[in-house]
Amino acid sequence: MPDHKDALSQMNKTLSIADKLKALHLATQQHHPFLSRIAVALYDTNTDLLKTFIYSGEGKTPLENYQIKLSETASLKKIIEASEPRVINDLTQLGASYKVHSKALLNAGYQSSYTLPMIFNDHFFGFVFFNSFEKDVFTEHVMVELDMVSHMVTLLIYNERANIRTLLATVKSALNMTHSRDPETASHLERMSRYTRLIAKVLAEKYNFDDQYIEHIYLFAPLHDLGKIKVPDRILLKPGKLTQEEFSVMQSHPANGRMLIDSLLENYGLNGVGYVEMLRNIANYHHEYVDGTGYPDGLVGGAIPIEARIVTVADVFDALTSKRPYKEAWTNEQAYKKLQEMAGKQFDPDCVEALLSSKSQVEEIQRTFLENDYG
To answer: Which pLDDT score is estimated for 301?
Structure first.
């Protein structure tokens, strides 16, 4: 009996979702060596944004930290409307209809593409893209096989995000118990999580953030104050200044948040979820200040994880520009000025400048997630 090795044995290991995609890509290339690239883009229903997420291919991806509204891409929108894949065996035939993403692929040397929607239980959440440096390679026989690969990728992505959704839903249920106590609203969490995405995208080149990093900081940012669940009402809701003893209790919420996250990960068997250390860092260090005056550890500058520095700026900006029972909302310009004043003291200057460079996107987020009397 001939020796046989499982070409997809890597899929059984505790690997990142990107590494699993690469393993699947390599296995597929054994039969279709012309398949040069597999890429995944995720869709955000609330903002209509299609965002690059992971890819497998030679060298650096031609599309990283890229997003576009689905409504602005007629050909991709047509795929959703028809619920059918799209094949382009000669990308140069797109002519004047080139979008930024099409030009990027052509400039990188790709000549053909096959695109399928990711749909699970009738829910559309993104696309799988197959590309080749050759023309006319996506024949009917090849596409039938790639359909199976696409469904495997869809299940891989869905399973990963289902694990994250389980974690987020559990935490959200816990946070809902505090929203009646804590003035932070659901709209606040929606806005500040998207501000973190804006900041991370601007800083991506300097800090070498990939699409997975940006997607996960967006997903995990709303969990920063989980530890407030353990802060007594008499302290959390106190209208006046806290005593030193009360402030010490309040200062315990970052560490409590991290412990709660560890407990949830263990109880739900989710330690394999990607970027969990980022989640821990956000919970534990979002009150650290770059001059060392923050808590719980008094970290200085770059010793504070960058994801925590990003979340701090996004959180404070939205708190300043939101109306609360104890204050009126500041204008964006007032909040920007305050952030600039405190840059290098409380806030990371790079994070502040990144937010200031994204003013139009900030305003769009504010329009999309308006505050109301009910949050």
So the answer is: 95
Cβ within 8 Å of residue 269, ≥6 positions away: none
> Phi and psi of 41, rounded to 5°?
-120, 140
Distance CA 321, CA 335 (A): 7
pLDDT digits (tens, 9 = 90+) for 178-229: 544 554 566 888 899 999 999 999 999 999 999 999 999 998 998 898 888 8
CB 59 within 8 A of CB 45: no
CB 282 within 8 A of CB 221: yes
What are the CB-based long-range contacts (under 8 Å, 24+) for 263-267? 264/167, 264/170, 264/171, 265/167
Supply the pTM of this predicted model.
0.83
CA dihedral 214, 168, 224, 343 (to 10 degrees): 20
Ramachandran angles phi, psi of 131, nearest 5°: -135, 155
Q: What Cα–Cα distance (Å) separates residue 136 from each residue in 34, 36, 113, 351?
A: 11, 14, 9, 46
* Cα–Cα distance for residue pair 96/153, rounded to 1 Å: 32
**Strand partners for 68:** 50
Q: Is the pLDDT of residue 354 over 80?
A: yes
Contact assessment for residue 210 and residue 64, using Cβ atoms and an 8 Å cutoff: yes
Write phi, then psi, for 16 (nearest 5 degrees): -65, 160
Among 7, 1, 367, 3, which Cα is nearest to 187's? 367
Looking at residues 141-158, what average pLDDT do you find? 94
